[in-house]
Inverse folding.
C-alpha cells in the first residue's frame, strides 16, 4: 500500500527543489559555453588543455592566456617576449612547451606560476617554429621554413636538456614556398611522428631518429591549409584553417595510410588553427587570418562535438 505524503512535507520538498533549480544546485546540469572570448587583439594560434583549463598562445605578443572551460573566463598567466607563441603542448608535470614561430625559439613555462623555466634558441636567420609534440621521452618542434625537426631529449625525471638537437628531414617531403611542415603528432603505434605540410596538403610519417619521411597514403584526400593535428586512438583530426573545416581520418595502426571519415564544419569557424580535446568536445581558437588585426579585433574559441 502506498503511503500518502503529508502536505507540509510535500511543500518543503517543492520549495527545496525550486531553490536548487534557481541557485544552480543539483537540479540544474552544468553547461559548458559553446564559444567564449579571448582578449581583443590577442591573435590566437595554439591551444593546449590540462585539467579543466585551456591555454592559448598569442602570435602578436607571445602572451599565454588561460581560460576555465567551465565558464570561459580567463587571464594572461605569463607575458610574452614580443615574438609569437604558436604551437603548445603540456607534459602532465605542470609545464607548457611553446613554439616560438618567427622568433626561432622555444620556451618552457610553469603553468602554476607563469615563470619561464627554460628558453631555447632553435634557429638563426629565417625560421618559423610552428608546432610541438611530446613523444617517447623527447619534445619535437616543426619548422615551416626549414626542413628540420628540433628535438629536446628529456632526461631522468623529465629533466630539461641544456640545448636542442637538429634532425634534418629527408626523403619524400620537399619544401617549397609558403608554410611547409606544420602540425605534428605521434603515429597510432607510437613508433613514428606524423606531420602535415600546409602548402601541399600532404601528410608525412617521420622517423624520429633519422628524420627520414614517407608520404602517408590518403588516396585523393588533400589536407591543404592543414594546421593543428590531434590524434585520438587511430582517429586523426586535421584542422584546415582557411577551409574552416576539420578533416577526420581513420589511420592504419602504423600511421602509413588513412581514410577520410568525415569533415567537421561550424558556422562560427573563422579560420581556426589548432585543436585540443576535453571529453566529447573539440576546442579551436579562431585565428581570423582573413581579418586585418588591430588592438580592438575580437577573437574567440569554438567548441564542437567529436
Amino acid at each position: 500500500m502506498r503511503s500518502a505524503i503529508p502536505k507540509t512535507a510535500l511543500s518543503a520538498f517543492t520549495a527545496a527543489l525550486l531553490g536548487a533549480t534557481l541557485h544552480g544546485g543539483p537540479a540544474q546540469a552544468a553547461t559548458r559555453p559553446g564559444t567564449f572570448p579571448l582578449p581583443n587583439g590577442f591573435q590566437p594560434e595554439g591551444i593546449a588543455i590540462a585539467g579543466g583549463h585551456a591555454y592559448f598562445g598569442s602570435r602578436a605578443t607571445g602572451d599565454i592566456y588561460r581560460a576555465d572551460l567551465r565558464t570561459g573566463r580567463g587571464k594572461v598567466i605569463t607575458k610574452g617576449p614580443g615574438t609569437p607563441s604558436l604551437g603548445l603542448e603540456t607534459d602532465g608535470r605542470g609545464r607548457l612547451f611553446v613554439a616560438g614561430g618567427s622568433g626561432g625559439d622555444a620556451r618552457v613555462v610553469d603553468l602554476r606560476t607563469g615563470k619561464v623555466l627554460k628558453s631555447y634558441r632553435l634557429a638563426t636567420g629565417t625560421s618559423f617554429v610552428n608546432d610541438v609534440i611530446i613523444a617517447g621521452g623527447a619534445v619535437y618542434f616543426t619548422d615551416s621554413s626549414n626542413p628540420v625537426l628540433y628535438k629536446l631529449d628529456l632526461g631522468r625525471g623529465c629533466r630539461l636538456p641544456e640545448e636542442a638537437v637538429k634532425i634534418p628531414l629527408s626523403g619524400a617531403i620537399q619544401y617549397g614556398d609558403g608554410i611547409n611542415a606544420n602540425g605534428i603528432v605521434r603515429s597510432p603505434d607510437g613508433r613514428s611522428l606524423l606531420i602535415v605540410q600546409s602548402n601541399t596538403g600532404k601528410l608525412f610519417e617521420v622517423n624520429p631518429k633519422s628524420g627520414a619521411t614517407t608520404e602517408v597514403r590518403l588516396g585523393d584526400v588533400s589536407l591543404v591549409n592543414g594546421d593543428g593535428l590531434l590524434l585520438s586512438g587511430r582517429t586523426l583530426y586535421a584542422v584546415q584553417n582557411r577551409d574552416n573545416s576539420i578533416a577526420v581520418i581513420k589511420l592504419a595502426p602504423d600511421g602509413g595510410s588513412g581514410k577520410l571519415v568525415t569533415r567537421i564544419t561550424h558556422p562560427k569557424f573563422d579560420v581556426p588553427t589548432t585543436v585540443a580535446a576535453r571529453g566529447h568536445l573539440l576546442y579551436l581558437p579562431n585565428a581570423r587570418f582573413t581579418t586585418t588585426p588591430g588592438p580592438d579585433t575580437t577573437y574567440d574559441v569554438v567548441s564542437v562535438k567529436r
